[in-house]
Amino acid sequence: MAISGEDFDVIVVGAGIMGSSTAYQVAKRGHKTLLLEQFDFLHHRGSSHGESRTIRATYPEDYYYPMVMESYKLWAEAESEIGYKVLFKARHLDLGSSDDKCLRNVIETCHKHSVPHAVLDHQQVAEKFAGSFDIPENCVGVFTEYGGVIKPTKAVSMFQTLAFQKGAVLRDCMEVKDIRKDGVRGGIWVHTSNGEKFWGKKCVVTVGAWTRKIVKKVNGLELPIQPVETTVCYWRIKEGHEAKYAIGGDFPTFAFYGDPYIYGTPSLEFPGLIKVAVHGGYPCDQDKRPWGPGMALGSLKQWVEKSLAGLVDSGAPVATQLCMYSMTPDEDFLIDFLGGEFGKDVVVGGGFSGHGFKMGPVVGRILADLVLCGEAKGVELQHFRILRFEENPKGNVKNLEA
Ligand SMILES: Cc1cc2nc3c(=O)[nH]c(=O)nc-3n(C[C@H](O)[C@H](O)[C@H](O)COP(=O)(O)OP(=O)(O)OC[C@H]3O[C@@H](n4cnc5c(N)ncnc54)[C@H](O)[C@@H]3O)c2cc1C
């Protein structure tokens, strides 16, 4: 156990997927690492808990494609190191109106990166998936081999275990209340609310929905990262068809580019139930969560009733779960040095905007590169800069209320 006052090479604050994979990456390279978490490890009050997250290679923004492909590789490496699986492969289907801008960009990304894909009309979609999807005539599907489902809590636990095995020190129930520069010796002091303090040469801040709060406290910068409470919905598969929609079969992970954006995964976590949910939610205070009553589900219900009529029992979801997103105005990540008096000694990874989990391993690699080497190769970091918020504070804020 770390003792107050002990020195480290790198202190990572926040033990969700991003902090845990960063701690693993840093410790693996032989650096003395401390991972601090404000709540119990594997708690359910942030963004990285639960039973399933989609991984897909198709993105409207082409700079995410290389990151996802690197992540697939790093997920597999970590799985083989720990000896169990956290990622379950599936194929992926993007749906939407043929003139939808995002879907057209998805197709362009596939062309640009030579991703094998098939563009299917509404009839071909119905045929390929044995009538599971019933989409309007003006809609198309973009089908690729690169989908999958990750088990989030198990994955976070995997990276924490691997970090520990590489020598990292892990402490939970340690809320970081301040990060200060050591003006005499150099490096960083990390103070916790229970009165402990740790010195590190460098620090990585991966605090999810708490990013705005901690950054404001540490250097006064007001980041437009908005916590949002979202509701995950599970629907009962029609009796007798459960096996057809289970992971490992032909049924893909999918996304519908529309208003709202809807996504789904094959059945995995709860036998007989399938996850179909809306990418969106209600702005909230991360420290005073409403914990429901949840989002208005009218448009999701309508979509499920119309488009998945052959798959699920109509009506309402049979189970729901709550979780938090941390949204940036443009829905791109924040991965950058904190700057100011901290220069390159403090790196921030946040604002993962409801689509970061799949990239946990690559984000950990990038944050470790930044904090240890001052640069990260193989990624277009200009999209994730902290200064973009000052240049364009509102960005293209999307309506998150589903
Ligand atoms: C319902 C839902 C569905 C999603 N689906 C997908 C998906 O299909 N595919 C995908 O790629 N992504 C998905 N995401 C997004 C993904 O889960 C998140 O982007 C990712 O989990 C963010 O991880 P994080 O480590 O940044 O944040 P978190 O998991 O919230 O971790 C931050 C940690 O920092 C801790 N912390 C905060 N403040 C302090 C402090 N002062 N001191 C110490 N510790 C602190 C917190 O307690 C927390 O544990 C989904 C998210 C949700 C909620």
From TrEMBL:
GO terms for molecular function: flavin adenine dinucleotide binding; sarcosine oxidase activity. Residues 9-370 form the FAD dependent oxidoreductase domain. It catalyses: sarcosine + O2 + H2O = formaldehyde + glycine + H2O2. It is an enzyme of class 1 (oxidoreductase). Keywords: FAD, Flavoprotein, Oxidoreductase. Belongs to the MSOX/MTOX family. InterPro entries: FAD-dep_OxRdtase, FAD/NAD-bd_sf, MTOX. This is sarcosine oxidasee (formaldehyde-forming). It holds the Pfam family DAO. Its EC number is 1.5.3.1. Its cofactor is FAD.
